[in-house]
Design brief:
There is one protein chain. By secondary structure, the chain is an alpha/beta fold. The protein contains 9 helices and 6 strands. The protein has one domain (about 5-250): Alpha/Beta hydrolase fold, catalytic domain (Rossmann fold), CATH 3.40.50. It is about 35% helix and about 15% strand. The chain has a 6-stranded parallel beta sheet with strand order 2-1-3-4-5-6, with helices on both faces. Helix 7 links the parallel strand 4 (about 130-135) and strand 5 (about 180-185). The two termini are about 25 Å apart.
Length: about 260
């Protein structure tokens, strides 16, 4: 991890208090459904959606329902609340990836919100032959584990130190998975330092910036559209997100 990444600080208290706007973002999602219906449809491949810290599949239901309507075989993680990488969690996720891939006879895409995105990245590193793509939503993989306003909650929930490395689960978090990878982040994220949620740009990896809260990212209309757009990429023919035309007004240049 670079010195810059190690010195990242958590978002300000002002941004943290602004997380309350997540409720309004859910309302915006419901109001935007007619427009979101213009998002590209999928090819039916399986998609596993992983929730954030102390959240369950209930939190990802709006996103999963939308993706199901776009033609994907969508699954939640089925482990109740995400209380961190407790005993058995990793094995259960790997078993689920195998099950979904074998059942559908295809590679699966992983969409992870916050802590769920960290899981998605590591699963793709461990099981690249079963994973088609990875999309993370506000996941702090490139900064210090304490550059968030949730690290104490993680420690209490999981019983582990936030900065505790587990080399058995895919190695270094900041290392890009060996599959097409998209990191969606927001500079107004009130939970995680946005700089730590950005992916290095390459032929198969990118960052997409949105203007969203952290707690509303899983149902923010701009995020939902971007997820659908990325999942619709043909397998083996992935291209970076196109910010041209109207999209430039919705999606800021992440490298500005």
């Amino acid at each position: 991890m670079s010195i810059a990444a190690q010195t990242l600080q958590p978002p300000s208290k002002t941004l943290m208090f602004m997380e309350a706007r997540a409720i309004h973002e859910l309302g915006a999602f419901l109001g935007a459904l007619p427009l979101l219906s213009l998002a590209p449809k999928g090819d039916g491949h399986p998609v596993l959606v992983l929730p954030g810290l102390v959240a369950s599949d209930t939190s990802t239901r709006p996103l999963r329902s939308f993706l199901k309507g776009r033609g994907y075989a969508v699954s939640g993680w089925g482990q109740g609340r995400n209380m961190g990488l407790r005993e058995g969690v990793q094995n259960a996720m790997q078993d689920l990836v195998h099950e979904l891939s074998d059942t559908h006879g295809r590679k699966i895409s992983l969409v992870g919100w916050s802590l769920g995105g960290l899981y998605a990245r590591q699963l793709a590193k461990l099981m690249p032959d079963h994973v088609r793509s990875v999309i993370t939503l506000g996941s702090p993989f490139a900064g210090s584990p304490k550059a968030t306003n949730a690290w104490r909650v993680y420690e209490m929930a999981s019983g582990r130190r936030a900065d505790e490395d587990d080399g058995r689960f895919g190695g270094a978090l900041e290392q890009t998975p060996p599959v097409p990878t998209t990191a969606i982040f927001s500079r107004t994220d009130g939970i995680c330092a946005w700089q730590g949620c950005m992916e290095k740009s390459s032929a198969t990896s990118e960052s997409i910036e949105v203007e969203s809260s952290h707690c509303g990212m899983g149902h923010h209309p701009a995020v939902v559209y971007a997820v659908a757009d990325r999942l619709a990429q043909p397998e083996g023919a992935w291209k970076p997100f196109d910010r041209g035309s109207w999209r430039s007004f919705v999606y800021p240049d992440p490298n500005r």
